[in-house]
Amino acid sequence: MTQPAGQPYEYRRRTLVEPDWTRFPGWRDVTEAQWQSAQWQRVNCVKNVKQLRAAMGDLLDESFYTDLETDQQRLATMSMLLPPQMLNTMVPDRTPDTESFYADPIRRYMLPVATDRHLDWPSHPHATRDSLHEHDMWVAEGLTHRYPTKVLAELLSTCPQYCGHCTRMDLVGNSTPTVDKLKLSLKPVDRYDAHLTYLKAHPGVRDVVVSGGDVANVPWKQLEAYLMGLLSVPTVRDIRLATKALMGLPQHWLQPDVVEGLHRVAITAQRRGVNLAVHTHVNHVNSLTPLVAKAAQTLLEVGVRDVRNQGVLMRGVNATTADLLDLCFGLQGEAGILPYYFYMCDMIPNAEHWRVPVWHAQQLQHDMMGYLPGYATPRIVCDVPFVGKRWVHMVAEYDREHGISYWTKNYRTSIEQNDDEALSKLHAYYDPIDTLPQTGQDWWRKQEAAATA
């Protein structure tokens, strides 16, 4: 009798667990009250190799620290900033050693080292600091108007944690030896006033994504004042708060003043018929813990309509069907967070080792279908420069040999108002070169040689 073949993916419920932070030598005496304190988490963030050594003790070989220092000095586009909450989700089920720490998926994108990178093609030839040209589309400092009915409001340029793959690496975070960051010049109150002035003058904009940086770094009184200002604009119907800190520093969103303030904002939004949502950024199921679930549930209890997740596809982190489905079931079933998008990692410098080709993203979207509830099945999108988000199956043309896909658009951005050809152009996106057939890789080497000749 033949055995059943089984399913390509087998669902097994995974209940959330807060990893034991005392397995790290530097946190052996940290109490639960300290761990749950947002202030303690912020004060004890890991910002450099010395502080990582203090937390890890003798768990890691010297070779890892050398690898990390090399990356920070020569390749990193983001400075190091890790809350203890986030470091604690690396190798969560045992005391880390060098091998397991290297292999950890969260470590791979939050604490990149030089040997992670593809030194033959660390960057795609078409990679740029502002890969989505958001700064080009500023209509006021920090206010990007790319889509006809939506704007992105960057309130500040800092986060509680810095992701190695940050798409806004030209603005967000501290300068690194390889990247001298842009700076916001206006005082926050003047920047916020400029945003509201633009929105009042453009009633066609109904949706505001409030981001940065991370809104968890905006002092609550300032953030509440800004949100109440948005709610005073009658044409604004959707407000989305973007915060990776819901996962990286859930303690922030559990602080009484933040909870009470968000409740005031949520009640005002409900009364005015405005949809208020929170968007977070979880890339691996190991990041989900009971504290994260508690923070998400608290947001819903105070009146936020939805808590949604926007992850990023990255090789070595989550770019398999099993990894994505494990994460989505954890988000939707255990943490109360709706899987929403997975973006293909953008074409920023030194990110080739993370990026996946379009065909791989298409295969992942195909393989995820049918397992999750339809409303909780995330869309995988390619954020095409000058175009915006496109489902990965919407590609107009695709040259697999050279890794060049072509995409169309159905609206004009704020810098194309007078461009008669904006809606008929084809816009290119590029696969990582190391994923191409040898003929394609050889072609790109010739292009590179010709460009530098």
UniProtKB/TrEMBL annotation:
UniProt keywords, alphabetically: 4Fe-4S, Iron, Iron-sulfur, Isomerase, Metal-binding
GO molecular function: 4 iron, 4 sulfur cluster binding; L-lysine 2,3-aminomutase activity
E.C. number(s) listed in UniProt: 5.4.3.2
Gene3D superfamilies reported in the protein's UniProt record: Aldolase class I
Organism from which the protein derives: Paractinoplanes abujensis
Protein name: Lysine 2,3-aminomutase
Enzyme's top EC category: isomerase
